[in-house]
């Protein structure tokens, strides 16, 4: 297991300077358009969904709505997340091009729409894992207990169809064995929300991170669902503990982010450093007694905005700073 310090590392030797980009020979894909630099990259494209072989049993379905990890093997198909409801037919078609075997298992890394939106559609066309629920009409759905709690809530707009609910839940950690490899599902508390999980395909050496790690935007911190910037940082450090760089062992661990390009340990390290630095800057503004508006005016993310920033859309730079500020301010009051 690789070990990493929680302190940021930068090319200049100081903790507050952006690190220069380091690359280790991984076939790169740019943004969500994916410039595939290898003949082995999948050519299948269907209505905005691109299919990329990662390594081992694992493939990645990429779209502007987010990424899905897919395990393909003799036992059938396993999905990590199911995308938005409007994408279900397109995503199902992409999966069926990869394998004609049944969808046996679904793992949700979180409870938001881009993680669980296609649960019902995928589960209904699947069958339970052989030896566990063979012959069942639906694929099994595994998620943290808090996701089931929210989906089955009888208040507000949180109710979802029963077929979309997790049929197997866990609290801290869950293990599975599928398609000839062990799969480790680890809960990460108070990160993107309160139900986040990391999924490690041990033989394939691939980690699916959900929205704890993204390559094209600042972390989404859902305060209403228990998210915190410190939890995101803890999650990124945990991913680094789970990954091995390419120059240390075989081809190294590949990382499928919730959104953005296929990544490796170095990409996670850069992102972790950014989150660590921005967290410390915002904490320093709070210690100086600055209000939220003053913190926004101080632009603590300015040097990272060209990479991760946004002024429009569902998650802007200002929204990130506000969420980080409030999560840190709440901790300070405690």
Describe the overall structure.
Helices cover 28% and strands 21% of the residues. It is of the alpha/beta class and 334 residues long. The protein has a domain of 227 residues: Ribonuclease Z/Hydroxyacylglutathione hydrolase-like (Metallo-beta-lactamase, Chain A). It has an eight-stranded mixed sheet with strand order 1-2-3-4-5-6-7-8. A six-stranded mixed sheet has the order 9-10-11-12-13-14. Helix 1 links the parallel strand 5 and strand 6. Helix 5 packs antiparallel against helix 6 and helix 6 crosses helix 9. The two termini are 34 Å apart.
Instruction: Please provide the count of β strands.
Output: 14
Query: Can you identify the CATH superfamily of the domain at 45-271?
Result: Ribonuclease Z/Hydroxyacylglutathione hydrolase-like
Name the overall outline.
globular
Outline the biggest β-sheet.
8 strands, mixed
How much of the residues is beta strand, in percent?
15-25%
What kind of assembly state do the chains in view correspond to? single chain
What gyration radius follows from the Cα positions, in whole Å? Answer: 20 Å
CATH first level of the domain at 45-271: Alpha Beta
> In what order do the strands lie side by side in the largest sheet?
1-2-3-4-5-6-7-8
**What is the CATH topology assignment of the domain at 45-271?**
Metallo-beta-lactamase, Chain A
SS element count, helices: 9
Q: Helix- and strand-based class?
A: alpha/beta
Task: Name the helicity range.
Answer: 25-40%
- What is the H/E order? EEEEEHEHHEHEEEEEHEEHHHH
Which ranges are low-confidence, i.e. pLDDT below 50, for 5 or more consecutive residues? 1-46
